[in-house]
UniProtKB/TrEMBL annotation, chain A:
Keywords: Membrane, Transmembrane, Transmembrane helix, Transport. GO terms for biological process: glycine betaine transport; transmembrane transport. Its main location: membrane. The chain crosses the membrane at residues 41-65, 77-95, 115-132, 144-162, 182-204, 216-238, 250-270, 325-349, 355-374. The lineage of its organism: Bacteria, Pseudomonadati, Pseudomonadota, Alphaproteobacteria, Rhodospirillales. This is Osmoprotectant transport system permease protein. Residues 182-374 form the ABC transmembrane type-1 domain.
From TrEMBL, chain B:
This is Osmoprotectant transport system ATP-binding protein. It comes from Azospirillum brasilense. Residues 2-236 form the ABC transporter domain. One of its GO terms (molecular function) is ATP hydrolysis activity. It comes from the Bacteria.
From TrEMBL, chain C:
It is found in: Cell membrane. The chain crosses the membrane at residues 58-83, 104-131, 216-235. Belongs to the binding-protein-dependent transport system permease family. This is Osmoprotectant transport system permease protein. InterPro entries: ABC_transp_perm/SBD, MetI-like, MetI-like_sf. One of its GO terms (cellular component) is plasma membrane. Residues 54-235 form the ABC transmembrane type-1 domain. GO terms for biological process: glycine betaine transport; transmembrane transport. It comes from Azospirillum brasilense.
Length: 390, 312, 250
């Protein structure tokens, strides 16, 4: 029973292995003479390790030790702390080295994150995730850890420490375009919301009340949902162009933001209608019966009983819709709808990889933010119903 | 057939089974009874090595089961649980054939065995063979569960509260079928229940557990007439003790041979409890008794019910 | 005659028929496109054959889905066994989080890390496809009722028999739903992958959009849409087959 067991945390061991392999085998940074040429690899070992740079790697070393430490609250707290500091430290190190290189290289030269950086950064963040679970932190604790990590990394952006990294150089060049693209992206997603709700919610209610409507509506919406966005944009091109030719004054065309919003709406109908119907179907029949029994009118039953009980499931549908729409809006850039996708595809077509990141990374952040916001809203709705968030 | 020698099982700090020694003889219908959490399921599950004991030895047919491969051991035993656990993606036939299939029986033999078992458990083979579990009622599902356990002709059948989730009428019918199956096959049965009526109706011997210890072991009559302590008296039910006592003895044992009495005769195999009910219903203190073929055997007097058991 | 009728009401067969006609017969529609878009010099996409594009498209989306099924299935099984349970939480978190990332953004981000071309696209699609498959494999295996497991062990099934005969068949409908999600997403993302250097059916669409040639766009889009409908019908068929034992099965 007292068998020697030197590995106490196999998840941490895997992450440590990932980190070591990435540090040894993958480039930490890439250095290119200009934004279009591919760069030469800079290994972690080639990054000067003296002074503060060495200190930035200390939490990484701590992470490597965690699998061998006897588990307990202190070790798990160390695990989380080292993960957060390692994630921030790796970013710091990259920014530091980029600044060093920028001081001696030509102004056109670019220093970018390498695959090694990404793997090590991912390992550090996963360590935080795993450590938070092992610590058994509640929602408040989790948010605190998240805010700390975001502040440590975001602070470096804000302080200009990362200005010499290529993605920030690209941002500096595109500052105005970027701000416009973010706004346009959000506007596309927001514009699709009213028509989605106005059509989707009544469809969902009707489908729940009548099985025949459900049998008619859901297969159609399902097929729409299956058709890839790029194909749907293409298929809308012909009818909308024809419409534009027939009524030039409408401002409708085969390309641009209008078809994008139409397509986004078509895609969003399924999750909204389906979850509206599912939420209503989930209202227990005895509850409805009781409402009828105390003399509520059908309208009162809907607004006072069914709607509040169906709200959490509905919000889950809204979350799916919004997260999906953020991605679809990026594809819509291909039909000239603008937004962050435009930056991303411009980068892909021009082989400007920093531009790709400048478009794609904010798309991911937007989606994650939409997801988190709607999850919070669901949790609040659930807690108002006196249930615990599942 | 099965013996426990000083068996202990702990879950963390809780001792679920405490230094238990117990034997189950071949052909016995042994019922384990005790309050919830007393360790009955743990004892049963150690018999087929679903749980390993911390201390002590368990032998089955003379072999220390710790030395056997668990799968081999289990294929020799039938196992029936309260929640049935039929495989929902298999038909009734395939469910019953599960162990014979694992043992590699030939197809034709498996098919015949399925037919035989469905008939034994009062399910029409042609109607139910191809049905899926969700198409059956709770009682029918448990019938299939029992058939599945009996499929490979096990020497031992382990049953953990198999009928507790069923309605009283279905439960009664399945109890009668189990008694008949036990008589017909002679299989050793270990049966867990928390229902004393069920235990008294089925058991040839009862073992009473409390907090993982053996409180008393004996025939139903022993338990009723000579309870080891208050826990046993509680389990038997102080107020209904008399009726339970009557339920475990048959009319034949108290019949006065050769006497006659007016009215429809009682069956010799009926319980004394049924006899009392008949007397109250008919407002008489004497009833005639007939044997299995309907031949008069004698008469039963109300006063005979009040005597203690014959210790002759 | 009867066979013809059943063919026309069978969505899968009909879809396959339409798909084949579109892929092979697109050149025959050239006069139609010429008449519809008289302003275009080249009303038919002819830089690559549609059959070749379709096969490449299927190889990318199907290959990625297949690898994702193997890896994701293995990971899902591993974390529900005693030896892998420790990895369960982190895998769940990654699968849930990763699925909020828009696939097109994942594809784009993979380019700076992995480079242009079909192989990086395959890796990106595979990684993305893993998430729903892992999630559903875990959910499916966990949905197997404990009494069913107990009965299987009690009758002498070893861990292997339990997994293959009981757990996986019972989890199959849920796992299939995950595979379906992955395949549908991969089919669409593979079209967009022609922007990162993989030749797929997205190519005529992209070329048409960039060169203001709506005929190209429509030619690519109808074939992709037909593929999607066939995929959907195929998964419906498969799901019906895997759930025959369920209470509400038809
Ligand atoms: N796998 C287990 N882990 C922890 N405790 C258990 C486990 N199985 C049983 N126990 C505990 O052991 C005791 C006996 O359980 P059990 O044998 O199931 O009782 P019974 O079947 O008599 O109701 C109970 O207190 C129960 O909580
Ligand atoms: Mg029990």
């Amino acid at each position: 029973m007292t068998r020697l067991r030197p590995i106490h945390n196999r998840v941490a061991l895997l992450l440590a292995a990932m980190t070591v392999a990435a540090a040894l085998a993958l480039p930490f940074l890439g250095f290119a003479p200009n934004r279009l040429l591919s760069g030469k690899a800079i290994a972690l070992g080639a990054v000067p390790g003296a002074g503060w740079s060495g200190a930035a790697l200390l939490p990484v070393a701590l992470l490597l030790a965690v699998p061998f430490l006897r588990p307990g609250r202190a070790v798990n707290a160390l695990y989380v702390g080292a993960g957060v500091l390692a994630a921030a430290g790796l970013v710091w190190l990259a920014g530091q080295h980029a600044a060093l290189l920028a001081a001696v290289a030509s102004p056109a030269a670019r220093t970018s994150f390498g695959a090694g950086f990404w793997v090590m950064e991912a390992a550090a963040l996963l360590a935080v995730l795993d450590g938070v679970r092992r610590l058994g932190l509640g929602p408040a604790g989790r948010v605190a850890v998240g805010v700390l990590a975001a502040a440590l990394i975001g602070g470096q952006f804000a302080a200009g420490h990362l200005d010499q990294l290529s993605i920030m150089r690209e941002y500096a060049n595109q500052r105005d375009v970027f701000a416009g693209a973010v706004l346009r992206h959000a506007a596309l997603v927001a514009a699709a919301l009213p028509p989605t709700l106005l059509i989707g919610v009544p469809l969902g209610i009707a489908a729940q009340r009548s099985a025949a409507v459900g049998r008619l509506v859901f297969p159609v919406l399902n097929v729409v949902q299956t058709i890839p966005s790029i194909a749907l944009f293409g298929l809308l091109l012909a009818p909308l162009s024809a419409l534009a030719a027939a009524f030039p004054g409408l401002g409708i065309g085969g390309v641009g933001p209008v078809p994008a919003v139409i397509a986004l709406t078509l895609y969003s109908l399924l999750p909204i209608a389906r979850n509206t119907a599912a939420g209503l179907a989930g209202v227990p029949e005895p509850v409805r019966e009781a409402a009828r029994g105390i003399g509520m009118t059908p309208r009162q039953i809907f607004w006072r009983v069914e709607a509040p009980l169906a709200l959490p499931v509905f919000l889950a549908g809204l979350r799916i819709t919004l997260v999906q729409a953020v991605g679809l809006a990026a594809v819509a850039a291909l039909i000239g709808a603008g937004g962050l996708g435009a930056i991303m595809f411009q980068g892909l077509f021009a082989n400007a990889l920093d531009l790709v990141l400048l478009g794609a990374v904010p798309v991911i952040l937007l989606a994650v933010a939409a997801d988190a916001a709607l999850k919070l809203a669901s949790a609040l709705a659930l807690s108002r119903l006196g249930r615990t968030a599942a | 057939m099965i013996s426990f020698e000083g068996v202990t099982k702990r879950f963390g700090a809780w001792t679920a089974v405490d230094n238990l020694s117990l034997t189950v003889a071949a052909g016995e219908f042994r019922v384990l009874i005790g309050p919830s959490g007393s360790g009955k399921s743990t004892v049963l599950r150690m018999m087929n090595r679903l749980i390993a004991p911390d201390a002590g030895t368990i032998r089955v047919e003379g072999e220390d089961i710790a030395r056997l491969k668990p799968e081999t051991l289990r294929r020799r035993m039938g196992y029936v649980i309260q929640s049935v656990g039929l495989f929902p993606h298999w038909t009734v036939e395939r469910n019953i054939a599960a162990v014979p299939d694992l043992l590699g029986w030939p197809r034709a033999r498996v098919r015949d065995r399925v037919t035989e078992l469905l008939t034994l458990l009062n399910l029409d083979p042609e109607r139910y063979r191809g049905a899926y579990p969700h198409e059956l009622s709770g009682g029918q599902q448990q019938r299939v569960g029992v058939a599945r356990a009996l499929a490979a002709e096990p020497h031992i059948l382990l049953m953990d509260e198999p009928f507790s989730a069923l309605d009283p009428i279905t439960r009664g019918a399945l109890q009668a079928e189990m008694a008949a199956i036990h008589t017909a096959t002679g299989t050793t049965i270990v049966f867990v229940t928390h229902d004393m009526d069920e235990a008294l109706a089925l058991a040839s011997r009862i073992a009473i557990l409390d907090r993982g210890r053996l409180v008393q072991s004996g025939t139903p009559l022993d338990i009723l007439t000579d309870p080891a302590d208050d826990r046993v008296r509680d389990l038997v039910g102080r107020e209904e003790w008399g009726l339970k006592r009557l339920a475990v003895e048959t009319v034949a044992e108290r019949t006065r041979p050769g006497e006659t009495a007016p009215g429809d005769p009682l069956a010799a195999g009926a319980s004394l409890r049924q006899a009392l009910a008949a007397m109250v219903a008919r407002g008489t203190d004497r009833l005639p008794v007939a044997d299995g073929q309907g031949r008069p055997m004698g008469a039963l007097h109300l006063a005979d019910l009040l005597r203690g058991p014959d210790r002759s | 005659m009867r066979r013809l009728r059943s063919l026309l009401t069978d969505r899968l067969a009909l879809g396959l028929l339409v798909l084949a006609a579109l892929v092979l017969g697109m050149p025959a529609l050239k006069p139609l496109f010429a008449a519809a878009f008289p302003a275009l010099d080249r009303p038919l996409y002819e830089a690559d054959g549609f059959l070749a594009l379709t096969l490449d498209h299927l190889a990318l989306a199907g290959g990625a889905s297949l690898i994702a099924v193997l890896l994701g299935g293995a990971a899902g099984i591993a974390v529900t066994r005693p030896f892998g349970r420790e990895f369960r939480g982190i895998l769940d978190a990654v699968a849930a989080m990763g699925q909020t990332f828009p696939p097109v953004a994942v594809l784009a981000v993979s380019v700076p890390v992995l480079g242009f071309g079909p192989a990086p696209a395959l890796i990106a699609l595979t990684l993305y496809g893993l998430l729903p498959i892992v999630e559903n494999t875990v959910a499916g295996l966990e949905s197997v009722p404990e009494p069913v497991r107990e009965a299987a062990r009690g009758m002498g099934m070893g861990p292997g028999a339990l997994l293959w005969r009981v757990e996986l068949p019972l989890a199959a409908p849920v796992i299939l739903a995950g595979v379906r999600t992955a395949a549908v997403v991969n089919l669409g993302t593979a079209a967009i992958a022609s922007t990162v250097g993989a030749k797929t059916l997205g190519l005529p669409i992209i070329v048409g959009l960039n060169g203001s040639n709506p005929a190209y766009v429509i030619q690519g889009a109808v074939i992709v849409a037909a593929l999607a409908v066939v995929l959907d019908a195929g998964f419906d068929r498969l799901a019906a087959r895997l759930t025959r034992w369920r209470p509400n099965a038809v």
